[in-house]
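Pair request: fold both.
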Amino acid sequence: MAQYNTIHRRQDAATTRVTPTTLIVAIDMAKYNPKALICDYQGTILEAPFSFGPHQQGVDTVIQRAETWRVHVGATQVLVGIEPTGHYHEPVVRQLTAQGWAVRLLSPTMTAEERQADHRRAKTDPIDLMAIARCVLNARGSEQPLLSGLPAALRAVSRSRRIMVRQQTRIKNLIRSVVDQTFLEYQGFQEPGQEATPTPLLDLWSRAGRIWIRELPLPQDYRQLERADLSLLNRREKLRLPESTLDRLWTAAGRAFPVPDEVAPVWRAHLERLYELYSTVTTLVARYEQDQEALLVQTEALAWLTTPGIGVITAADAYGEWSTLTRATSPKKLVKYGGLDPNIHGSGQRPDRYGAMSYQGSRWFRAALCQAGAMVVDPAHQNAYFLALADRFRERGLTRRQIDVVAAHKLVRIWWAMLAYHQVFAPPTWDGPPLAVDWRPKIHTVAHRRLAEATWSRFMTTRTH
């Protein structure tokens, strides 16, 4: 059995303890009408729930009332429990932290469990405030400081890029759906008598494919042309499509179902708008990736680029979420924060049984870690250490997704050691040739490469051997 120095497993050495000289302030954050409650270390309510404004004057009201009660009861410290609501709690937390108070963030799951412990079906702001205060008394929550500076900017940019990539995928699926309904063989042309899977005539996302569909989106658009006109369009737009492809396009247009004339203009406009939207989102994604590179080269995560298979985007996604745990003293806490730790079940003399991963951490961090795990076990990236690890677990019957999670587990521990000891990628259990690769070719902008050189010099100066 694991040994603990306190029954409060969520606490670490940096967590503020509740003592007889502690004053507790519970805050239920909201966008427009947050509320607060003040009680002592025994849970006796000193100030009934009251509303305050989500601005400087409102926070000053909370500070004034709490300081008045602190002097009255002789408390020496103020401990705040706050249930976050989106990002609206962040200015309040920063202001209270600047006041010198300890601020503990509580997840909605914690307060829900406290309400259930009282067997209450009701949910009101006063009930939530009392649940928040009890969470503080029971040593729940985290006192991790809010992100600021480069890590906060990197996390914001990485999350925005990930959202844009999802939108890009949705738009691509819409375009594929429209092409299926208008000119199916753009995505699959089958020769007479051919049994193999049809081959696409055009890459819908390449420059050539996008220009061709812009000019000739529907089958009936070909009927006003001659075969030579296709070659003329090909040369005029410098598309470099082979003549054999043009022959197949001409054949496909001749046998395709025509779109009814009364709706043809609508389909043409629909495709045009979707491609405009796709172009806009693709440009945004590229700009976000430039921002990610500009920020990453100024952080210690530059060392992660020495990992074969890991590029700027993957490292930036992971480090933006990784930096949230600024007090992580072991990789085990990072695995827990990512929700990659397994559920453990055991009782009596039976050995513990390890189940599926908990999924109880940050979904952003989990997605970034699983993506990194998938990258390093991809044979195309030639990471010999993780390819050997994948082979071992594949022989044990694990699926590809399970192997990605295992690789993410291992990668967290290696990356944590790389940052802790200022080292390049060199797993201690590897007995083959050095695995670390040069990070410089992975930085594409000259100005960013100069920043990276300065960061790398500072990082390696304090290297521990």
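--- second member of the pair ---
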Amino acid sequence: MPALAIRAFTATTALGRGRAAQAQALEQRRSGLRRNDFGSDPLETWIGRVDGLEQAPLPAGAGNWECRNNRLAWLALQQDGLMDAVAAVRERHGAARVAVVVGTSTSSIGATEDAYARLEDGRFPADLARPIVHQPHSLGDFVRHAAGLRGPCITVATACSSSAKVFAQAARLIRAGIVDAALVGGVDTLCGSVLFGFNSLGLVSAQPARPFDPARDGLSLGEAGGFAVLERGDDAALLLRGYGESSDAHHMSAPHPEGLGARLAMRDALQRAGVDADAVGYLNLHGTATPANDAVEARAVDALFGDGLHAGSTKGWTGHTLGAAGIVESVFALIALADGLLPGTLNSSARDSACGPQIRLDNARARIRYAMNNSFGFGGNNCALLFGAA
């Protein structure tokens, strides 16, 4: 696959707004998790909540899209010169030649929850009688409008792999000649459906998430938004080199016990880039801190990579941000390439004996040429991305 230039990238999480806030917290090993204070009857757990989101306004004329999820999208879009990069590719190619491809798992369902809670004679209250915020494409429609783009606008909703798969979708659009550039990203915000839904599956821990720890007992949920600008060409300092996708369809919510789909996705990303596994310096693991998922991913990584790989899960920093995890953790992989900061795994005091030596708890510093990000979703929706330094 021809490499694609990454013109700009950013993330906003519980660690703060923009790349610098993410990098500083990663380096200081400072978690963004806190005791759950979301909702009127908070579940006993820890969450990664973005501060100031309730007061974050949308741009003028965007009232139709008003909701927590789109407020976070707008906040994230304004960081790290992202909108300047969008303006530059729009000027070079025209608004119709720049795609918008975004991932989300719940979109603005929080607004729909609120609308049902405040029904008036069986109807949504007037302030929420806006159909666009009650559908999965709410995010994509808002981002297209906010960015002033008129190319294909696609929403990817494949659970927790959603905003990793946007890179693959954008690469195909560019390779097919449909567009010359793409704004990709993902946003998911906390809501009752997420917190209590995951809890009903027995996946939420009452403690901060401890990925790959022998005593891990579940995940911590979070919210986040992030974006990147991709463009045809290989003249940037950071590049998208390959992607791999698979769907093992083993179970509605449990991974394939041998990690088949995960291995296929990672292998295909390497093959598409023409890169050997030994050349990868950093791997951001999906690492949710649930007993089954971590063991399966560790097994898949050990089957493909040598002992020298530095692999870690960053969900102890941000929580599991669901449909936004792919873009957020791609930003972390790009930080590793740009700055040489290789995050380990936070909150874990030991490595499960079932894990291979690739799983690291401590941070490291090294100049690397390739970094990978894994994102795996319910139903066996898997995506691995390979990024490279020019």
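Observation on the second member. The first helix runs from residue 19 to 28.
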